[in-house]
Amino acid sequence: MAGHSQFKNIMFRKGAQDAKRSKLFSKLAREITVAAKGGLPDPDKNPKLRAAIIAARKESMPKDNIERAIKKASGPDLENFEEVRYEGRGPGGVAMIVEALTDNRNRTASDVRSLFAKHGGQSGETVAYMFDRLGQIQYPLSVASAEAMLDAAIEAGADDCQTSDQAHDLFCKPDDLNEVSRALEKKYGPPSMAKFVWRPQTAVPVEGEAAEALIKLIDALDDHDDVQTVYANFEMSDATMAKLTA
Fold first, then answer.
1. How far apart are alpha carbons 168 and 180 in whole angstroms?
2. Residues in CB range of 104: below 8 A, 6 or more apart
3. Which of 103, 98, 131 has its CA nearest to residue 220?
4. pLDDT for 64-101, tens place per residue?
5. Segments making up each domain of the chain, as ranges
6. How far is CA 244 from CA 21, 95, 135, in A?
7. Is the domain 11-72 a CATH 1.10.10.200 member?
C-alpha cells in the first residue's frame, strides 16, 4: 500500500463553464441510462450505475435528471447506445485511451480518427497495456488525515491509497469497487468520485509545442458528443498546465 504519492491520474472532463453544463449533463445522463440498461436499475446492486450516479452528483446534476435517466433505461424509446474504446498516440508519443458511448460506431470511429490526425496524433495503436484498469474512489482532504485514510483503505479492501495536495485517491480492483465504496461510505459518507478508470503505469514528460497540441487534442475529443472520458499517460509542469488550460 502506498500512503503518499505525487502521482496524478490524468483524466479530463470539462464542465466547469456554464456553456458546457448542458452537454456534460447529457453525457452523464447517457452514462446512467446505459449502466441501468446493462444491469439492475438499483445502484446498490449495480456498481456501474452507482459509479455513474456519483459522477453525476459530483457535477451537481439535478436529482430529477438522474431519476429520468434511470427510468429511460426501461423505456421503449431508448437509443441503442454501446460502449466503445479507442486507443492511440497523441503529440509527444503520449498514449491515449478514449471511452465513448455511441449509437453509430462508424461515425464515432471516423470522427475520433479525424481528431487524432488533425491534432498531430495517430489513432489505432494498442496502448491499453500501458494502463491499469481500476476502480477509483476519491475523498476530499478534509474528511481525514492521510494516515487515517490509508488505514480505512486497507480495512475496506482497497489495493492502494494515494494522498496528494488535492484529495485522497483510493484504488481497487474493478470488481471490488462497489464493496470498497460502500465500506468507506459508512465511515466518511458518500465519496466525491467513485468510478472505473484507466491509470497510466508510467508518465511521458511533455512540454512546449507538443504539450499545446496534446491539450488541443484532448479538448477536441472531450468536446465530441459521443466521448465520455479521455485518459493519457503524460505529465507536464504546473506552469505549462495552467497556461494551456486557462
1. 14
2. none
3. 98
4. 999 988 888 877 655 678 889 999 999 999 999 999 99
5. 11-72
6. 21, 19, 29
7. yes
